[in-house]
Amino acid sequence: MSKNEDNKPRFDASKFKMKSMDVNDPVAQKVIIRLPIKKPHKEEFVRCLSSDEYQISCGIYQPKDEERIYLVAPDIAHLFGTSVKHVSLCLGMNRQGKVFLWPVPLPPEEGKENQYHQTHREIAEVAVHSWVKMQADTSGGFYDYHVAVGKLSEPVWPTTPFEDLLEIAFGSSGVIEDRDHPTLRQLEGRD
Questions:
Q1: What is the pTM of this model?
Q2: In angstroms, rounded to a whole number, what is the distance separating the alpha carbons of residues 84 and 87?
Q3: In the chain, what is the greatest distance between 2 CA atoms, to the nearest angstrom?
Q4: Measured between alpha carbons, how far is 148 from 106 in angstroms, rounded to an integer?
Q5: Cβ(60)–Cβ(69) under 8 Å?
Q6: DSSP 9
Q7: What letter would DSSP give residue 25?
């Protein structure tokens, strides 16, 4: 370091020289504290993560006139009758980078296929590779979709383990594992 007339060190700019940063280097990592469980809105383009590690076939229950959705253990799902929906919970993301759990209906084990459910599944499969917007065709009784025409960037998926995402989405009170859960007690008329 050079010195000035008073024999004091001059400013050493070399201490501050940085090598160029990669624009992909993260400066922060988003922490997910809320994770909605929802079907994509008809006006948003979405993608679906295809990884087996980020989806689960399960039963969910949504009480009438409530927004809350519950995860139901398989050994007590029969207690809900036809109120339990059998779905594949997949990780979805919209163009704003908001992640959500996307309940995609599973095919029925028996009986006639619901066209809304069938086309919903088909659209979720397309959303693995393309940005799609899903909309109901109420006159036809099915969903149709639009594919984004622009060159949109690929989603940056969270690295949070799926089990942790499920816990964030449902919380401890949103999982029904036994007959004593308040929601099941209310459904059965015990409370």
A1: 0.82
A2: 9
A3: 94
A4: 26
A5: yes
A6: B
A7: S
Burial class from Cβ neighbours inside 10 Å (0-12, 13-18, 19+) for residue 178 reads: exposed
Cβ-contact 1, 9 below 8 angstroms: yes
Residues 137 and 162 sit within 8 Å (Cβ to Cβ): no
Rounded to the nearest angstrom, the gap between the alpha carbon of residue 38 and the centroid of all alpha carbons in its chain is 8
Query: Any idea of the CA torsion for 104, 110, 112, 115, to the nearest 10 degrees?
Result: 10
Tally Cβ neighbours within 10 Å of residue 45: 22
Question: What pLDDT sits at residue 16?
Answer: 78
Identify the bridge partners of residue 102 per DSSP, sorted by sequence position.
90
Mean pLDDT by runs of 10 across the 191 residues of the chain is 65 76 68 94 96 94 93 96 95 96 93 92 97 96 96 94 96 94 90 79
Q: In degrees to the nearest 10, what's the CA dihedral of 75, 60, 159, 135?
A: 150
Tokens found for residue 80: 């809900």
Is residue 124 exposed (0-12), middle (13-18) or buried (19+ Cβ within 10 Å)? buried
- What does R_g of the chain's alpha carbons equal in angstroms? 24
96, amino acid identity: Q
